[in-house]
Design brief:
Number of strands: 5
Number of helices: 1
Number of domains: 1
Order of helices and strands: HEEEEE
Shape: elongated
CATH topology: SH3 type barrels
CATH architecture: Roll
Low-confidence stretches: none
Distance between the termini: 49 Å
Strand order of the largest sheet: 4-3-2-1-5
Radius of gyration: 14 Å
Largest sheet: 5 strands, antiparallel
CATH class: Mainly Beta
Structural class: mainly beta
Helix content: under 10%
Strand content: 25-35%
Length: 76
Amino acid sequence: MYLNKTEKMNMNLNETKFRIGDLVYKPKGYKFPGIVVSVFKNTNGETRIVAELENNGMLHIFTEAQLERRPNKEKK
């Protein structure tokens, strides 16, 4: 089935590995403990994750394969 770029970008995001609010880390290379602030598909229909670095606020765009989920800690 052929999908044009707009259709790829609008594909269901329920099939993604991460959700907004998930705590994540980058297991390879440089460290990046963060929280997911956005999940979207690029114009090729590939999922991208925007994570905000803890204690810094810097945003970085990742592929799903670059991140792993951390347990969410409840704040009291």
